[in-house]
Automatic annotation (TrEMBL), chain A:
Name of the featured protein: Putative lipoate-protein ligase A
Domain BPL/LPL catalytic positions: 77-284
Family designation: Belongs to the LplA family.
Highest taxon of the lineage: Eukaryota
Alphabetized Gene3D superfamilies for the sequence: Bira Bifunctional Protein, Domain 2
Species in which this protein is naturally found: Humicola insolens (Soft-rot fungus)
Main function: Catalyzes both the ATP-dependent activation of exogenously supplied lipoate to lipoyl-AMP and the transfer of the activated lipoyl onto the lipoyl domains of lipoate-dependent enzymes.
TrEMBL record, chain B:
Gene source species: Humicola insolens (Soft-rot fungus)
Keywords assigned by UniProt, alphabetized: Lipoyl, Mitochondrion, Transit peptide
Details of cofactor binding: Binds 1 lipoyl cofactor covalently.
Protein name: Glycine cleavage system H protein
Lineage of source species: Eukaryota, Fungi, Dikarya, Ascomycota, Pezizomycotina
Record's function text: The H protein shuttles the methylamine group of glycine from the P protein to the T protein.
């Protein structure tokens, strides 16, 4: 990973984005399928005052899709009800109040997925890391997963209302008789475990839910696993190597066995649309009311762009992390026995670290020398502590170097390597490591969104 | 808090309801004490925030209502407001998470945030226990300085009796 502009630099560029998007508007007006307007100023937002609205995004960028959704949440008429359907390229989406260091295997994320079958090449498919604005736990998305989202007035909102709508679509329109909403507001199905016993079934989650409630609106969005080829990889991606060492405030994910429901994306979308119409529209809402939003259209909207800017910033993805404690020893707050640290670390090695918003608040590392000269090493602990406090975990590029620079005492390189693994920093062959923030930024900059953002940077 | 109005009915075991009721009565007692002690004036928004105003109407304490806390369910995380921030009535000043839902906390009036309740960082469930307690250990969210506009905003808010009637009506829907 070569040198690349920081998240802050990209954010600064984005801040400078003004309404000067007219060139894009005129360019992509040809791609409007449903919006029959010829005025470049009227985009997919022209329907925001209608009582019922249906949108489908053709973008597979998770930052863009979540920002379109947020725009609809913020700007639609408070009495309107909206259905929004979209699919994302491979990404991990964590909840608003979660820790990426606890929820995600950041090194596995950086490795990406094996090359796609449909586009055979030598490259791994990158996986984006996204923090959404709604609550709940971490999920994996890819092209085989459909996302559905309903925005409605608070007065009709319940947590099950629209999960039931999707479950109904699955049962009554798509031939999935066991689809139902469970006590966690997830949609589950029963699957025969094997052919030997006709009655032996196991329950699998196919859809998860999360909610965002504002002063005037309620948003419920959910996933639905249709035909993901990556299910066997999800468990590893959503398991942090630091899980056994971290106690976090905020929200921890609940693991559930997952399964594809085996339906095509178009069929699922049509069935959910039909169910939504049956629920709210009667015969009033026809296909004409459905708006297809392209990526270009979305990025011509300044609200969407500023939403993307926020979601794609390291300050949001990592800096929004609630306070957590990393400790190699059981503590009063987190008395779990700790996993074996595995490395050839000295017997007396101990690390205790508290981070708030990804920034180290307090840290105590002892026994970090590979030698037995413990007296001199531990005497240097205060120097190490003061050098590390206020350092941000997501901007740390290599703990081996960080520790060497922080103390004059000898440091066991295995200690740095252990901390690199714990906090998701991937070793690199050329000796230059990238921070996790740079890693996520690099994945964005390789996408069309990244190119759009780069084009939009001010002339220097 | 608007979205927790009315029909956010979460199926929950009877035990929880009993606990909620018990804690509600506790907090009523606590509130009665603090209200008389500070001679505070309490107002509510339709979006289920409350504000206690000091006798001189220069400062106040803000929180979310017991009704809202009960509708939301178990609160597992509180994003506190930013100290020193000046906000208008209705602005989102923080958020709470419960049962996969991130719900905005909105400022009931125009004001400046002077202090936040750090207890909630460690014990977010305090809001479920004593949502309307503005004393130490209570579920209040922030202390504020009331602006001139804030005094005007107060006129549009409900007193405790009107709010009780408002939530009773909402519950019937």
């Amino acid at each position: 990973m070569g040198p690349s502009p920081s998240f802050e630099a990209i954010s600064r560029r984005l801040i400078s984005l003004s309404s000067s998007t007219s060139s894009i508007r005129t360019h992509h007006i040809n791609t409007l399928r449903i919006s029959r307007t010829t005025s470049p100023k009227r985009h997919f937002t022209q329907n925001l005052l209608r009582p019922l609205q249906i949108y489908r995004s053709t973008s597979t960028d998770p930052y863009i899709n979540l920002s379109i959704e947020h725009h609809l949440l913020q700007r639609s008429h408070p009495d309107s009800t909206i259905l929004f359907l979209y699919t994302n390229r491979p990404c991990i989406v964590i909840g608003r109040n979660q820790s990426p260091w606890l929820e995600v295997n950041l090194r596995a994320l950086a490795d990406g997925l094996p090359p796609s079958d449909s586009k055979p090449n030598n490259y791994a498919q990158p996986i984006s890391l996204v923090r959404r604005r709604s609550g709940g736990g971490a999920v994996f998305h890819d092209h085989g997963n459909a996302n559905w989202s309903v925005i409605c007035p608070p007065a009709i909102f319940t947590r099950d209302l629209h999960a039931d709508m999707v479950a109904r679509a699955l049962r009554e329109r798509l031939g999935v008789p066991t689809a139902r909403v469970n006590g966690r507001h997830d949609i589950v199905i029963d699957v025969d475990v094997d052919g030997t016993d006709a009655h032996a079934t196991k329950t699998f989650k196919i859809s998860g839910s999360a909610y965002k409630l504002t002063r005037t609106r309620a948003l419920h969005h959910g996933t639905c696993l249709l035909s993901s080829p990556n299910l066997s990889r999800v468990g590893k991606l959503l398991r942090s190597p630091a899980e056994g060492f971290i106690k976090a405030r905020g929200v921890e994910s609940v693991r559930s066995p997952i399964r594809n429901v085996g339906i095509k994306g178009d069929e699922f979308a049509e069935a959910v649309l039909a169910e939504f119409r049956a629920m709210y529209g009667g015969g009033d809402i026809s296909h004409d009311g459905e708006v297809v939003v392209t990526e270009e259209q979305a990025l011509a909207n300044n609200d969407v762009v500023s939403g993307v800017r926020e979601l794609a910033s390291a300050d949001w993805v990592f800096g929004q992390t609630p306070l957590f404690t990393f400790s190699t020893e059981p503590t009063e707050e987190d008395p779990r026995p700790r996993p074996d640290v595995g490395y050839k670390l000295r017997e007396g090695f101990r690390a205790h670290l508290v981070a708030r918003h990804g920034e180290i608040q307090s840290v105590n590392i002892r026994g970090f020398s590979g030698t037995e000269a413990s007296a001199t090493v531990d005497a240097d602990t205060p120097a190490l502590t003061s050098a590390l406090v206020n350092q941000r975990l997501h901007h740390t590029t290599d703990w081996r170097r960080t520790l060497e620079e922080a103390t004059r005492a000898p440091v066991d390189p295995n200690v740095g390597e252990f901390l690199n693994e714990m906090f998701g920093i991937r070793p690199s062959v050329d000796g230059k490591n990238a921070s996790v923030a740079q890693m996520v930024e690099q994945i964005i900059s390789d996408t069309p969104l990244g190119k759009f953002l780069a084009q939009k940077q001010p002339q220097e | 808090m608007a979205s927790i109005t009315r029909c956010l009915r979460v199926a929950r075991p009877a035990v929880f309801t009993a606990v909620a009721r018990a804690s509600a009565s506790r907090s009523v007692a606590a509130r009665a004490f603090s209200v008389s002690a500070a001679n505070a004036l309490r107002k509510y928004t339709k979006e289920h925030e409350w504000i206690d105003l000091s006798a001189d109407k220069k400062t106040g304490v803000v929180g979310i209502s017991e009704y809202a806390a009960k509708q939301l369910g178990d609160i597992v995380y509180v994003e506190l407001p930013e100290e020193g921030k000046e906000v208008s009535a209705g602005d989102a000043i923080g958020a709470v998470e419960s049962v996969k839902s991130a719900a905005d906390i909105n400022s009931p009036i125009s004001c400046k945030i002077t202090q936040v309740n750090l207890v909630l960082e460690e014990k977010p469930g305090t809001i479920n226990q004593v949502a309307e307690d503005d004393s130490h250990g209570g579920g209040w969210i922030a202390k504020v300085q009331v602006t001139e506009q804030g005094l005007k905003d107060l006129e549009g808010l409900m007193d405790p009796d009107a709010y009780a009637a408002f939530t009773a009506e909402a519950g019937e829907h």
